[in-house]
Specification:
By secondary structure, this protein is an alpha/beta fold. Helices cover 44% and strands 16% of the residues. It has an 8-stranded mixed sheet, sandwiched between helices. A hairpin with a 5-residue loop joins strand 1 and strand 2. Helix 2 packs across helix 3. The longest helix is centred in the last third of the chain and has 17 residues. It is globular, with a radius of gyration of 18 Å. It starts with a strand and ends in a 9-residue tail after the last helix. This is Alpha/beta hydrolase. Belongs to the peptidase S33 family. Keywords: Hydrolase. GO terms for molecular function: hydrolase activity.
């Protein structure tokens, strides 16, 4: 069911809700993309009421700035307030994992469980991006020349989609099906908001350098599940400091899967998340 949430500054946010049970809100990655987590919703909607949304300026939501981490946290709180109720579980993927973590730091009393999928951690000094860039080029293989040519020039909308599909194909472990999975992610094509991407990425870098995120993570007292695929081209060691900082977290590597582990290992992903939501200690945060 498609819904419309209005933020506190009257930005229209596209939202979809499915399933029944305790609310679980999904935060897609990007930044600057739209929600692609419908397969996650289908895997989990027998166990929770799944709420997914397009972030401000992205996909079916209104293209209205400003684009900042704080603004997106406020938008997520509007989704919670209008649809999820006083308390929700959160699942974030990639950049969305950071958004979910940042929301939890700001509003721990409003989060029952946090599921941090394929994030890149909180350590500003242990840069993961050069590692990612090397692995991206290796994984692209025979498509590298075309990707580099597209990346180096101003693109038409069709070329923009082609470049994204090639880049996203590197996020899957199985070369034989990678392009098919990436094409599915890009259908329908809703366009990338590059202004949003640049602003949010800069905001995250500034925040990790200046906001004492690790110290604030140590103050959290709620269950956290960290999931990543063993074949993700982003380094798994990037989340080491986050795992150490969280006092009530568990960490799981899903074999044979890349950056979107629910695509290539859906059975284990579903089992891990549903078990966590059902059995993890749901202790009140005690923080205001």
């Amino acid at each position: 069911m498609d819904l419309d949430v209005r933020s506190d500054d009257n930005c229209h946010l596209w939202v979809e809700q499915a399933g029944a049970g305790p609310p679980l809100v999904l935060c897609h990655g990007g930044p600057g993309l739209w929600d692609y987590l419908d397969p996650v919703a289908r895997l989990l909607q027998d166990h929770a009421r799944i709420i997914r949304w397009d972030q401000r300026g992205c996909g079916r939501s209104q293209r209205l700035g400003p684009y900042s981490v704080a603004r997106f946290v406020a938008d997520l709180d509007a989704v919670r307030d209008q649809l999820a109720g006083p308390r929700m579980a959160l699942l974030g993927h990639s950049w969305g994992a950071h958004l979910a973590l940042r929301y939890t730091i700001e509003h721990p009393e409003r989060v029952s469980h946090l599921i941090y999928v394929s994030g890149t951690g909180i350590d500003p000094d242990r840069g993961w991006h050069p590692h990612y860039e090397r692995n991206l080029r290796l994984r692209l293989g025979r498509h590298l020349d075309r990707w580099e040519a597209l990346n180096a020039r101003t693109r038409t909308p069709a070329e923009d989609r082609e470049q994204a599909v090639l880049q996203w194909s590197a996020d899957f472990a199985d070369h034989g099906t990678a392009l098919e999975h990436a094409e599915r992610m890009a259908t329908p094509w809703l366009g990338i908001n590059y202004d949003c991407n640049q602003a949010i990425n800069a905001g995250v870098r500034h925040e990790l350098t200046n906001a004492e995120v690790a110290e604030r993570c140590r103050a959290l007292d709620l269950p956290v599940l960290i999931i990543h695929g063993t074949e993700d081209i982003r380094p798994r060691w990037a989340v080491d400091s986050l795992h150490r900082a969280l006092t009530n977290s568990q960490r799981l590597s899903l074999t044979g899967s890349g950056h979107l582990p629910w695509v290539e290992n859906p059975h284990d992903f579903r089992q891990a998340v549903t078990t966590f939501l059902t059995h993890a200690a749901d202790r009140p945060s005690g923080m205001g």
